[in-house]
Write a structure and sequence with these properties.
183 residues; mainly alpha; Hypothetical protein af1432; 0% strand; globular
Amino acid sequence: MISRSEALNLLNSYIKDKRLLKHCLAVEAIMRRLAEKLNEEIELWGLTGLLHDIDYEVVSGDMSKHGLEVVNIVKNKLPSSALEAIKSHNERLGVISNSKISKALRAADHLSGLIIATALVMPNKKLSEVTVKSLMKKFKQKDFASGINRLRIQTCIEIGLTLEEFLEIGLEALQKIHLDLEL
């Protein structure tokens, strides 16, 4: 399996958009924290989160291809469970995976967006200002960050977490990397 350092170098060679890079770091952080809480393989889950969007610029945002090109990019660098999770995180591909890592990635992908969007509307635009209570409030506001799929976030129950637990895990994870996220 690829090391985190190698994965970061690979990611930086494929993704130039700073916002997308931060998104990948955010999903990685959430996936690592989830793996820790759920007693799963921390490195595997983290790398899956880190590399899940590595093909986004290659396919120019074409969602009918997003996730498929990852297999070519990281061939023999990640186990099949990670590749399956990455392919299944894009629901438009129709790849269905019910593995715990796949469910976690789909939920974490959208949770990262909710947390970051919430931080950006705080007075100082800092993750330190975000609370689980403020996340719950924004989660319930359907017009807030409307591109975030709340049903995807709620699938956290399928990996054994309540919504509140999941929000807390995600928030803690992103607060730990706030400098990388510049939030």
